[in-house]
Amino acid sequence: MPYIKLDQRKKIDNEIDALLSAIKETSKNDEEFRKGERKGILNYVVTRIVWGLIKDEVKYDKINDIVGSLECCKLEFSRRVAAE
Question: How far apart are CA 45 and CA 14, in angstroms?
């Protein structure tokens, strides 16, 4: 995981926790969600975040940075979670 400054984490952790709660609450009440729609919701959330970061200025270097960050997220997740 990229190591960001603690004060930077604090600024976004509450919002991330709220988003996670909303996703988990949906899974409690929605039969389709429990049948495998979590991957769709995860894709939607990540896409909205990424698009929100670049939509005002779509340029190759920004797209390249985002794709690189997403690839590193995938690798870090595999290293920390899937490889255990």
Answer: 16
Tally of CA atoms within 13 A in the half-sphere of 18 that contains its CB:
5
Measure the N-to-C terminal CA separation of the chain; round to a whole number of Å. Answer: 15
Over residues 31-80, the pLDDT tens digits come to 666 666 777 888 889 999 999 999 888 999 999 999 999 999 999 989 98
Q: Are 11 and 26 in contact (CB under 8 A)?
A: no
54, 44, 56, 51: which is closest to 19 by C-alpha?
Answer: 44
**What is the three-state SS of 13-75?**
HHHHHHHHHHHHHHHHHCHHHHHHHHHHHHHHHHHHHHHHHHCCCCCHHHHHHHHHHHHHHHH
